[in-house]
Amino acid sequence: MVDEERTPSPEEMLRVIEEQSFATVRWLHGDPRLLYIPWGIAWLLGFSALFLHYGLGGEPYAPISQMQAVGVLLSTMLVAGAISAYGIVRMNQLVRGESSARGAMFGYAWFAGMLLMTIIAIRVSPLLPEEESGLLWGGSSLMVVAVLYMAGGAIWLNWPMFFVGAWVAGVDALGVLLGAGWHALLTAALLGGGFIVIGLWLWWRDAR
Questions:
Q1: What is the pTM of this model?
Q2: Which UniProt keywords are listed (predicted)?
Q3: Which of 37, 118, 141, 175 has its CA 20 to 30 A from that of 75?
């Protein structure tokens, strides 16, 4: 008979240790596929819709209204925020005490920041021209994301997360200065596509 309870070989034990070490690092630092890729998809879809509405020369590239484009952006960002919040919760399942409290407060900060941004935009946007109104929605939402990513990087000493937040702030600022059409294009390309690439690269790097 084959001994089904044989002692594992050193090679098998080393493989198990490596797998568990990788899983622990992933849980403590967050799965980049949950923290980056959802935002990338949301921005790629939402800001592409805004870009098609505004165009670069004042003429729309597709028959999409501003409210339809903003609706795509907000709905996809809502989904992205929920997925990222799930990723943050996973980051805190293996920690206790102050680290766990930081994670909880950080999650509440995401909710409060996005809620306040939405309230301000709803109140102010009707007073602005259409393009400036869209720029308010897009610019303010990216501002909240940039600040919170940088704050998250500081909380967990996660330099990639901090620098990504700074990158979001820089792209947002440049886009706001150039105008609504350019802001939508830069955000869709550099942040939407960029976040997808970053999430996949960080996941691939951690998996090696």
A1: 0.77
A2: Membrane, Transmembrane, Transmembrane helix
A3: 175
